[in-house]
Amino acid sequence: QNVSPRTPTGDVANEDPDPIAQHGSFLTTSAGSRLQETDHTLKAGERGPSLLQDHHFREKITHFDHERVPERVVHARGAGAHGYFEAYGNAASVTRAKFLAPGRTTPVFVRFSTVLGSRGSADSVRDTRGFATKFYTEEGNFDLVGNNIPVFFIQDAIKFPDIIHAGKPHPDREIPQAQSAHDTFWDFVSLHTEAQHHTMWNMSDRGIPRSYRMMEGFGIHTFRLQNEEGHTCLVKFHWKPKLGVHSLTWEEAQIVGGTDPDFHRRDLADAIESGACPEWELGIQVFEDTPEQTYEGIDLLDPTKIVPEEKVPVQLIGRMVLNANPRNYFEETEQVAFHPGHLPPGIDVTDDPLLQGRLFSYIDTQLTRLGGPNFNQLPINRPHAPVNDMFRDGYGQQAGHTGVAPYTPNSLDGNNPLTANESDAAFTDLPVTVAESVKTRAAPASFDDHFSQVRLFWNSLTDVEKDHVVGAYSFELGKCYEPAVRERQVVNLARVDESLAQQVAESLGLPVPDVRGSEQTGDDRSPALSQLGGTWPV
Ligand code: HEM
Predict the structure, then answer these.
(1) Within its chain, how far is the Cα of 22 from the centroid?
(2) 59: helix, strand or coil
(3) What's the mean pLDDT when you consider all of the chain?
């Protein structure tokens, strides 16, 4: 009776419902051996040297040495929360996605973030904010990976490394843009006039939110929905905060950044802990799915454009409440992996060239960030739906796959899921006609207008908001050492609005540019990049 073999179910560790959760009255190694003590290394005599034999020491230090995973290449700084989404049911007329059907409630995890700063940077900086939501639907995960600004800097994903390189800390000194030279960012923005729209939102109060709880969210791209009858429509997603949209003033943001760099993550966690659970309503703008995919001349595949809500009102289709903080930041907020291609049946992507590129990028970066191909098995990423992907092995494999034939069809295992799944529950690639059959890198002419919506945004602002925008451009451009960069950006502002350009030019001590030629002809197209040498063509 003294010596008995261990059985798979009869040992101490397996009686613990969560054997790796680190609780209990004694310490063990990671293999479960009880430790006598953990404060001193094993040495040859009290005064050493230390012995290589000390497995516990080596294991402890080795694990510590590997505690850090790479931070996200963008959106590294974030804060997350759990909650639920309640569908109003009215979207069932446009989509067969079950989580939007009447009476459905779906668990969610949301991660808010800044874009450019590193994991340890301050919350209150002027930047775009990420607003990424994972809906754990019964039909698999739906990730709505959006921002708090309704447009994006660039129109084609191939430019993403360029805009991020221009905005990240300078390669020589690793000093962030926000604290020193701003030349590379404004060099990029002034040369890529498609970025003017997003940038003016950044320079407005939207660039310095008061709280994550008080931000709108936007899916930005146009998505395609399909209903039970097979009818399709195009939509843009919007989150509307119940608390309204509020911002910090620039002075407040500076003080907050210095006194409490964790201002936004603290605000979110404190609010939820005290029961003041933030809420948003989800809405959609709905467009007819025509071959042109335009609305009144606005190309719906151009992510630098909005469709004004006065023209196409946002129809509210559900409500989200965030009511629980993560219990462990690393496990949940750091390891969560969003992907714009995680879509349930009834929601599909469009050919927006920015969205198309994102479909590649997220899984690619997560393979490195989360150490191999099995990160969707992590608890925070696991769908609340059965998974039968026939994937096998790989770093971090958690699943105890059985059977000998991980392929289908097979005649050995009896595990033969339908490969041609015609059931209504399956995601179907919609039979959309591909518009152009000639291979080309050219962008459509409908992407050429880079200024009219910047003017629309500027004209929508109150006088106080306009003052803030002038102040922001003046401050940011004032940090540029290169006169040509400043001048070029002020010319861009003149193409938006004369008084804006005049005020910024005056505060920078620059001459007011004259662009009346292009304004009078209503020409809002981007000047050819080849013309952007030392002098700007006006
Ligand atoms: C991360 C939004 C464009 C590549 C993120 C996150 C958000 C976001 C919210 C943070 C997700 C999180 O909290 O974990 C957007 C929006 C875009 C856009 C709204 C345009 C409309 C792009 C493009 C690319 C890209 C064009 C690349 C071609 C990435 C990468 C990450 C990321 C690599 C890090 C993902 C990770 O490590 O898990 N983006 N993004 N994004 N984005 Fe985007």
Answers:
(1) 32
(2) helix
(3) 91
* Cα–Cα–Cα angle for 42, 45, 50, rounded to 5 degrees: 40
Which residues, in sequence order, are CB contacts of 312 under 8 Å at separation 6+? 285, 286, 287, 295
Ligand 1 pocket member 477 (CB < 6 A): no
Q: Please write the tens of the pLDDT for every residue from 482-498.
A: 999 999 999 999 999 99
List the structure tokens of 424. Answer: 């209504």
ipTM for this model: 0.97
Q: Please identify every residue annotated as catalytic.
A: 75, 147
Q: In a mutational test of the pocket of ligand 1, which residue from 69, 145, 268, 339 has the highest number of ligand atoms less than 8 Å from its CB?
A: 145
Number of H helices, E strands in the chain: 14, 12
Give dist(CA 264, CA 266) in Å, integer: 5
Task: Tell whether ligand 1 has an atom less than 6 A from the beta carbon of residue 337.
Answer: yes
The arithmetic mean of pLDDT across residues 154-172, rounded, is 95
How do 140-147 and 223-226 pair as beta strands?
Answer: unpaired
- Cα separation, 27 vs 323, in Å, equals 34
Number of other CB atoms surrounding residue 59 within 10 Å: 13
CB-CB contact of 427 with 344 (8 Å): yes
